[in-house]
Amino acid sequence: MLFIIYYELDSNLDPADMLTAYQKIQEAEVEFEKWETKGWYITPEDWGVAIVECDSVDDMMKNSYQWKLALPGFFTKYNVSPVAEVEQAVPVLAKMMRKFKK
User: Fold this and answer.
1) Is the per-residue pLDDT at 29 higher than 80?
2) The domain containing residue 79 runs over which residues?
3) d(CA 48, CA 30)
4) What's the pTM?
5) Which is it for the CA torsion 18, 34, 90, 93, positive or negative?
6) What is the DSSP string of the chain?
7) Residue 81's CATH number
8) Are the C-beta atoms of 15 and 61 separated by less than 8 Å?
9) Would you tell me which of 57, 70, 79, 86 could form a disulfide with 21, CB atoms 3.0–4.6 Å apart?
């Protein structure tokens, strides 16, 4: 399943601490059942999005927790939601609309 992650970083954190947190995560070698990062982006304003493929709630939780444990306060906001391509979503919407027009 595809998910979009919207996050905001604490702009007051030292960039060196952020890099250290990233290194800690790499060294921890957290195991995921299925986790594939399709895209990971950040803006100059310290917010960003990631698109990931994941099939387990545990893996989604591990991803969030690893950052929070490596550097408490890293995120000021962290939102996750399933996402679909428009080509997938339109037929679902059309089917639902037919059900509600009965």
Assistant:
1) yes
2) 2-100
3) 22
4) 0.82
5) negative
6) -EEEEEEEE-TTS-HHHHHHHHHHHHHHT---SSEEEEEEEE-TTSEEEEEEEE--HHHHHHHHHHHHHHSTT-EEEEEEEE---HHHHHHHHHHHHHHHT-
7) 3.30.70.1710
8) no
9) 70
CB 41 within 8 A of CB 49: yes
Give the chain's domain count.
1
Could you tell me the pLDDT band of residue 54, with boundaries at 50, 70 and 90? very high
From 78, 68, 88, 2, select the one nearest 46 (Cα to Cα).
Answer: 78
The pair of three-digit structure tokens given for residue 94, joined into one six-digit string = 């059309």
